[in-house]
Design a protein that fits this description.
The complex is a heterodimer of chains A (230) and B (76). Chain A contains ten helices and eight strands. Chain A has 230 residues and is α/β, with parallel strands linked by helices. In chain A, strands 6-5-7-8 form a four-stranded mixed sheet. In chain A, β7 and β8 form a beta hairpin. By secondary structure, chain B is of the alpha+beta class. The longest helix of chain B has 18 residues. The termini of chain B are far apart. In chain B, 29% of the residues lie in helices and 16% in strands. The chains are: A alpha/beta (230), B alpha+beta (76). Chains A and B meet through β1, α2, β2, α3 and β3 of A and α2, β1 and β2 of B.
Amino acid sequence: MSERFADQGLVIIGVHSTRGGENAAEFVQQQGLPYPVAIDIDNKTTSAYHIDGFPDYYLIDRSGKVRVADLANGDVERAVAVLIAEPAPPSIHPALAEASRKAQDKRKRILVFWGAAERQNELLARMNQLPQANRVLSNEFEVVRPDAVAQAELLPLCPSILEERALSVLDAQGNQVAEAIWSELEGPGLEAFLKTHKPQTLDAEQLWAQALKQAQRENKRVLVHLGAPW
Amino acid sequence: MKLLLYAALTIGFSLSAWAGTDDFQREGKNRELKDPMEGAAPPALQVRGWLNTEGAALSWEALEGKVVLLDFWGTW
């Protein structure tokens, strides 16, 4: 199978158990396994994936998400063929890549500054004057300040009136959620815009109910950490 | 007791039905832990070493755009 799909973007990674790991190299060589093999340490990786038997198969799709956790052994080839046939998602612009990664990790959104550097500086200075500016700028938004070249390349992502645009809010995947032109950000407009488009918070009651249910099922207790998630 | 068992079965069933919109066959115990992994980024591969990579570690960033099949196995 590794040969059949190799040039179509399939990567097979073997994860060898911690137990017997010292023999893995010899086995791989003897069998002539052609694909990368990782050797688990202290069962950390098998625990993280909740492995309960060998072999167990997990499939990650082209968007980098787990698609099937513990795929039935007999269905591996069919599932791989289906995922291989899917188009790769448009890759995110390099100017947004790091912000997108951080935003996904911390449930933030991305704030893109447009226009000349001087105007961007002024706007950022105003943001720093806002009440709770620290929370807004470090916990709610990842700030991206593309240079002129990157701005031109990012335009198709964020269609708008070019001259006037000041700020865009993108979700963590880089899709535009909202945008503002300069005149909308005057006075209290800036704070209102940021407040309206900050990331959505999780519903505490829903989380609580989920945790209780899971704890009951697995005979565990619930540890509640009250406070900010950062 | 019967009612409790029924409730537990219903919850288990609705969780596994909710996990995917495809018809791929899944298996194994602990589906309630495995199902929530689907749709999320895969956990890091914490390993003591790599074979067949000339010593380099593979990262999920480097595998972007690829379909990755993780094959958990063992020999002893």
